[in-house]
Amino acid sequence: MTAWFKRTEKGIQTATEQKKDTPKGLWYKSPTGKIVESEELAKNFYVSPEDDYHVRIGSKEYFEILFDNNKFQELDAKLTSKDPLKFEDTKKYSDRLKAAQKKTGLKDAVRTAVGKSLGKDVVVCCMDFSFIGGSMGSVVGEKIARGIDYSIKKGIPFVMISKSGGARMMEAALSLMQLAKTSAKLAQLAEAKIPYISLCTDPTTGGTTASYAMLGDINISEPGALIGFAGPRVVKEATGKDLPKGFQTSEFVMENGFLDFISHRRDLKKNINLYIDLIQNLPIRK
Questions:
Q1: Taking CA atoms, which of 24, 27, 83, 102 is between 20 and 30 Å from 251?
Q2: Is the pTM of this model over 0.70?
């Protein structure tokens, strides 16, 4: 048997062909430099336990957090975007869609599902930043609209989880039309007196912020989330002024009156249901 190391004048060395890389995904390093095991991170609602940093997660993880026993029925699961403008920049839009679908396993940048949360039926619509930056295209708008229609039909609360870079430029005006479309649908939801809870996560920007993300009966967020229309760099270049400390963080946005509450991720399920009960004037559940 050949030894896997040999002693040299410089110390113990391992032959290159015998070195083994650490498997990916075992550890996570937060922006502040804290390291945590991925398994421990998942158990802690994808929040770094040492610095409380809320890691960006997608619809899969939010559904696990909000739905009882992770049981739900997905709505309009096969709806996919087309390329009506035959858009092409450095790559064809149709090719971008195929690549994003293959990479993420998602059909588009939003998933809608219905299930029970603390024993009560609720529709949850959640965006995925991993799919073309969570950009809002015609399918995103359509799935949100259909989710709202389902809430109205069944008379059950609607929860929107936003995580987006804004409108999808590859669909041009078709994307911008979704601002008006989703806002109109939310007006119908309000007329039906059905609760709408909007959760803004990191990041919530652009046309998403300018439409459904800030139209909730209750607008809530997670700690440290970036929330705004244009990004801080663009705002600074446009105004020519230094921005306040913490500009566009959820804490800054709440301080200036655009959010009602900031919730730690471990308390999301409890707090969302609390606000639903308050809106419906129901007894507080313990």
A1: 27
A2: yes
